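COURSE: Structural Biology Practicum
ASSIGNMENT: Worksheet 4, Part C
STUDENT ID: 0417
INSTRUCTIONS: Below are two proteins. For each, the amino acid sequence is given first, followed by its structure token string. Answer the questions at the end about the second protein only.

PROTEIN I
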Amino acid sequence: MTDFRIVFLLLATLPALGLAAPRRLVVASGDCKDAELGSQANAFLNALVSSPEQDVLSASGFSERLFPQPTKSYEDLQRQLDSAQDHFYESRNGKAAVAIDEALQQINRLPVGDARWKLYVNAQLLHGLNYRAMGKQKESDTAFRSVLRLQPTYELDPDYFAPSVRQGFDKLRRELNLARKVKLSVKSTLPTSDVYLDGLKMGQTPLTLDVLAGTYDLNLVKGEAISFPRQIQAQGADTPLLVDLAYEGSVSATPFPCLAAPEGSDERILSHAIRLGGTLGVEEVIVVRLERPSSGPKWFAATVLNVEGGQKLREGGFKTQGLDAPAEALSALVDFVTTGRSPSNLVVMNANGRAPWEQAVTSDKSGAPHGGMDISAPDLLSDGIADSADRPTPALRVASYVLLGTGMAALGGAGVVRFLAQKNVDDLEKRLENGRILSTDREALRLRNSLVQKSNVLTGLLAGGGAAVAAGAVLFLLSPSPQAPPPVSVGVATNGEEVSASLSGTF
């Protein structure tokens, strides 16, 4: 049996497929190992969560969605497999199957590498033996295939496996060697990243492999950068994949949700925060950080971003010293980020497009009063672009319409994909047996695989559409108003299985 929680993990990672998502996400940016940043960010999150009617993703919820952790250690899982083996030898095959399934769920959450792969192989081989004893030859072959598809030269130990089992294993090996393969190509935005399938290291990017068609767990690692765990579907003649490890590797869940931010990368961090909010399905992302001006006190700052529009809604902060933030200042900042107003003068807001920690350094140029309380209108992320574009041309307005139209088409397509995926979820729920998918139920397995495909499509549509809308809006603001806006039409269509979008206009 396949545990249905695999499907729900997919839906949690891509909530547009069915699970309701919290409205807000709090993520720190900067040095993710900074104890002061972690302490104040955690205090801010606790203050926000304790406020009435606040739907905020918790730190544990963030970790579970992006980096699910095992609840058992390697040693615990080995003991569980030993117990399952005892059940097998004592002909308690049903209990053995349940114990192995539960162990596999936890094994798939372990850090990738040889230790995880060894446990995985032991579990699958025991599964194969147990199913064979139950007279389920097809399920037994599936378990053995899980090992052979990535290690085709694997040999069974003659001290533990009967000759008939080894003969069947070798026959399956020959069949798999003759089976048609899928060309799987994996690339990363960080070169020479380690590629893991089902926890086994297969090589480094750029990597091209011939693999059997099916579903695999994919992870990329380079140094401390670790990709989000994902299930991929290898199918057709080839399956090309590009993983933005520069983005995914900057995200960490411990000790606090954080985006690693090198100096001078504010725009990139805000862009990554928008993408992260889209992945988790929240409406707003609150990025908190410690600002250290070249002169003057430190600031604990918060920037509120709208995910759908890619906008910076508001920004403010308070002066801070030491690890602990003043409770009154934290409460005032929570009021500010949730309402746009603050009754306390402890919180200084971003006035006229310039943050107070910047004003302290450049007050001679801006003339803005330090501690001003005016709230600027929402501005798009690329403020630096606006400063440099002194003489925009009409072509920018044309480009903005194209980007906005394309982005809206992609987001509209995402809505259609969500609708189609929900139908799959509803159909799949009807075929469950005690919350699980029977491995013999081909239709249920097809529905599960279809959900995996739609999740990949949805991720691309959300990320691409959001980026296009944000870029189009920036160009729109930079360009002069034409006499008559170019007519642009956007269309989204579906035939029940595929989605198409069209853009037309006269420029």
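PROTEIN II
(use this one for the questions)
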Amino acid sequence: MSRKISLNAHLAHDAVGSAETEVVLLQFTHPETEQIVRLSTDPTERLSLQPLRYGTRSSWLGADPARDEDAFLFVLVSVLIPDDQEQAPPAARLVVEGVDNELAELLRSTLMRADVSMAVVLASSPDLPEQEWHNFKLVGAEGAGEGITLTISRDPITEEPWPAGRMTRERFPGLHP
């Protein structure tokens, strides 16, 4: 499946060495709380001195780049390669390091699953997503201290209703003259 990417991203991928940095933006929203958690994998700029925080300012998904509260906070993120489990839906595991206890508690405190959106942007153009993915669910947040392992997944295809409604005269009169 082909994807459209900007010319700058295409040139950065083809170059032997490039000054362009790809940044992953993560946004966690939850119906039980109004707080939105925004994380970034790049310390694009210093947001504050006390406490010392770095992050990325972007207008992706309605964030206001002028407000420090809407900035995507820099955290160290590692990816654990997913394993193929036959009885479980595919899932990605991210290890987020260097987070404070307040953020860790927020990610682990809710009973319902949080919605997760991800985007890849260039540090030079953080408002223009090169690729983005939506409708993931946070299915697990484990760990404390140095890092939290976040498990995100889509709803399994096996939860879709089957068989679908039949296209009978009563349900779809426009199909039957």
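ANSWER KEY EXCERPT:
Q1: Residues 7-14 form the longest helix (8 residues).
Q2: The first strand starts at residue 22 and ends at 30.
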